[in-house]
Each structure stands twice: as structure tokens, then as C-alpha cells.
Amino acid sequence: MALAPSLAWQDKLAMFRHYLPLSNNILPRRPYNQSAKLFHLNPTTDIVSNLNSGAHHLLDKIPKGNVESATALISHFSRQNQHREAVACFSTMLLLDIRPNEYTFGTVLHSSIALKDLHLGKQMHSYAKKIGLSPNVFVGSAILDLYVKLSNTGDAVRAFNDIHEPNVVSYATLLRGYIREGWFDEAVVFFRSMPEKNVVSWNTMISGCSQTGKNEEAVNFLVEMLREGVIPSESTFPCAIIAAANVGALGIGRSIHACAVKFLGNLCLFLANSLISFYAKCGSMEESLFIFNKMRERNIVSWNAMICGYAQNGEGNGAIEIYEKMTEEGIQPNSVTFLGLLLACTHVGLVNEGYKYFNKVRYEDPSLLKPEHYACMIDLLSRSGRFHEAQRFLQDLPFDPGVGFWKALLGGCQVHSNLELGEVAARKILELDPRDVSSYVMLSNAHSVAGRWQNVLSIRQKMREKGLSRIPGSSWIEVKSKVHVFVTGDKRHGNRDEIYLALGFLLEHVMDGGDTDLLIEF
Description:
A two-stranded antiparallel sheet has the order 1-2. Among the domains are: 1-133, no CATH class; 197-297, no CATH class; 491-521. By secondary structure, it is mainly alpha-helical. The chain has helices spanning 9-15, 45-50, 53-61, 67-79, 83-95, 102-114, 118-130, 137-150, 153-162, 168-180, 184-193, 199-211, 215-227, 236-246, 250-264, 269-281, 285-294, 300-312, 316-328, 335-348, 351-364, 371-383, 387-395, 403-416, 419-432, 437-449, 453-465, 496-513, 516-521; strands spanning 474-479, 482-487. 67% of the residues lie in helices and 2% in strands.
């Protein structure tokens, strides 16, 4: 079927001119047309050199109107990640008056997404609309995916509304767009309105909640999904496990772990790594080690999860032991490995070991060193009270230290009540970030420990004058698989009366015992 006469072949050529190379194999054999000069069709060398001339020769030999063969050729290029060539073939297909079908657009729109070319995608959308294919669910879903990944939710909503009968894929794609933009409430409403939900839809909500910090909601969606009788996939559990880890819900995480074993049997590598991190964050390194030892295969992420887990739990020797075992098995460490090792050394004051690992990387593979590694060394030295070495390390940095470096030094000054150096570090922080609240708080705490109450009042007065306020402290506890979250001065908890009553009894007991240091904290 020929294209509408209103769309001249020069117009088709101009639409995709940046992707269309000139070659005897792919351009249609037409008389020279002076108007073609208007399009300045000068091919870029890299496109021409990478062209599969045999494939384009086949396109030129396709019988007139054979869209299936042309689409298969475009699909071939797309599968080989030769997306510029796929677009060039699509352009040539139009010049040969082969009318694309819904599968052609689905394939070539994927190539425009891979090329991150929104302008090209919009041209394809316009062309699909011109020939009446944009309401087709297959084409419409591809257009929707384009706008979700490369544009904004407004464009995506308009593309979704243009689809004649959207399917579960269309709904799931727009759902991802809402979550990507941070429109969580709109995403929930849209999710509830979906006429059909599959495991991908549920996974999108669970992962979206987890990635946006709505951890309790992520776990609740998993529970609701199971109650609805939807069978979870391998992709379901990692995000739910991460959500449980973020709130320290050990009981809930164990239930999710058991559920994963029930539905999946053997745990995939990604899920096993997530479980190692989960148990480590909840302080249960025994269970992390159990998962690690049972894994049939491990990658660098598995080893790093164990090293960082031991570091988070203050078990420096455990982290070093895992690292030594890792090197014995011939696993090549990366920058995360050494960052975990330095953190482990920092938490237990292993200064010499920290120096050893830092120098090992510096001499053997300095490309692995990132600013975070240098900051860890300053933190290690200052927390160990070795301030002269920390200052010398700061002076020898191969780059200008940022806020994080001075905060590391200030943290050590707070621990050892080094007020003079602490004030220097605080001034540096405020020069770089005048509205940094934490530096005021840390310096105030250091003065408090030293009993310099006038300085404490002065710092707090400066904070009020600048309109700065502390972010309320928070904590949580899990009781009977329910996570209870508390913030400073909390008045919203359902059991607040009983909580404050118990707190009153605790304060009375402390006052009777004369523990003034603890009273200062309150």
C-alpha cells in the first residue's frame, strides 16, 4: 500500500536526514532532483563506516510494499544495538514507499529511545499520527514509553489518552512515569484505577515506593499483592527487602525472605545480595553470613555486601577477614571494597590497617581512589585523635577538600573535645555551605561536653537569626512485626500517652540516681 501522495518523498527524506547515509545500496534509484540539495544530506563518517552493506542491499531488493521483510531488517539492526542504522533503514523504507505497520514503529521507536533522541521520537510520533497508527495499542505504548523515558509526564499522559484501548503494558508504562516524576499520590490513584494488574504493575509500585523512601508503603503493596493472589517474580522481592532494611524491620524482612524461598526456591544472585545487605542493616551478621555461605555463585557485590555489613556493625576484623578470603579466591576488589574496608577500620580505630589498605590502592591502582576514600582516612585519623596527621593529610589532598572532609575533621574534634580545631573546621564548612545545620549542631555539642554553655547559647542564637533549625531526630522499633516510628516531640503516635508516661517514670529514676550526664541529653 502506497503512502498518501501529500507526503512527498523529499519530506520523508528530510524527516530523518541526520540518520540517513548516502549509499548506492540504500537510496532509491531516482533521477537527480535539484531540490534534494535543500536538505544538505552529508553523511557522517561513523554511520557510513558501520553500515552493514549486505543488509541494506537486501532492503533495496525488497519487493514493493513488503513491510514484513523491511521491518525484520530494522529489527535486526535494533537487536544488534545498531540503532542509527535501524533509523536509516526506516528512512529508506519510507523512500521506497513501503508503508510501516505497528510492529515497524514499535521497533524503530525503541531505537530512538536508545539514541536518547526525543526530537526523532516526536517526528515518528507525528508520522504515526499522520497515517492513523498512533491510537494502535502497540504503537501508542511505544510512543508512551518514549515520553516517559525522554520527556515529561504531561506528554506521556497525552500519549496514553491517545491510545484507543490501552493494555496492561500501557498502564504500567505510565505508572512508571508518575513514579519517576515523584507523583506518588497520582501513581496510587492511577494504579487503583487500572482495570487489569499483572506482576509488572505490582512490581512497579513496590519498587517505586522503595526508591522514593516510602518503605512502609512498599511492604504494604507486597502484602496486598499476595492477598490478591498474584504470583510474585524474582523482581518483586529485592525492592521489598530493601524497603524492610531501610526501616530496620527484621521480622518483616524474614517473612519476605521466607516468601521468596516458597515461591522461587533457589534465590537469584541479586536477591541473595539484597538479603545479605538487609540482615547486615538489621544488625544480624550471622544471618548475612549464612546467606553468603549458601550462595552457589558470588560476584563482587556479594563480597562487598559482607565487607560493608561488618563495617556498619563495627566488626572491623570480620571485614578484613572477608577481604583476605576474597583475595585468596582471586576476586579483584573495586573502589567499593576498599571504601568498606576503610569504614571498618574507622569504626574500630584500626589506624595502621587503614593506612595499609589506603596505600595499597594508592600505589597499585590509584584510579580506584575517590574523594570518599580520602574523607574516610581523615575521619579515621581524627576519630583516633591523630589531628596533626589529619591536618597534614588534608593539606596533601590532590584536590580542594569539600564540606564532607571538614565535617569528618569536626566529628573527630567533637569526640576528643578539640574545640580550637573544631571551630576552624566549622568555619570552613560554613564558608562552603552557610546554611549547613549539622556543623552548628556538632560544634554546639562539643561546647556542651566542655561545659561552655555561653558558647552553646551563642551558637543557637546564630541558628535562630539565620532561620536554621535542627532536623528532628527519629528512631523506630519493631514489635510483633509492626514498625513503630518516633520523632522528637512526637504527638501523633497512637500510644503517645503510654509512651510519655513510661518516659516520665524513666526520668524520675534517672533523677533519683543523680545521672546528670543523661539528663543533659534529654
